[in-house]
Amino acid sequence: MYEKNSPYEVELKAGQTVYLCRCGKTQSAPYCDGSHSSLGGVVEPLAHTADKDGKVYVCGCGKSDNIPWCDGSHSR
Ligand code: FES
Description:
Order of helices and strands: EEEE
Number of domains: 1
Number of helices: 0
Number of strands: 4
Bound molecules: FE2/S2 (inorganic) cluster
Shape: globular
Largest sheet: 2 strands, antiparallel
Structural class: mainly beta
């Protein structure tokens, strides 16, 4: 999931909940596909519920200090 040099743009509706990968092993980026269980459950996905309609940006490079969110580190 962290082979990109840009974030994943995820369009959400208010109240929608998504489970975002934080282990980097998912095959369904940026969403959790259960792959973290093979790591002993050390890194759990983030359950995020949108408070409004709009886009969120999920790190695709793995350099963010705020995984799963893009913090701009991909451009530094
Ligand atoms: S895509 Fe990783 S910090 Fe932006």
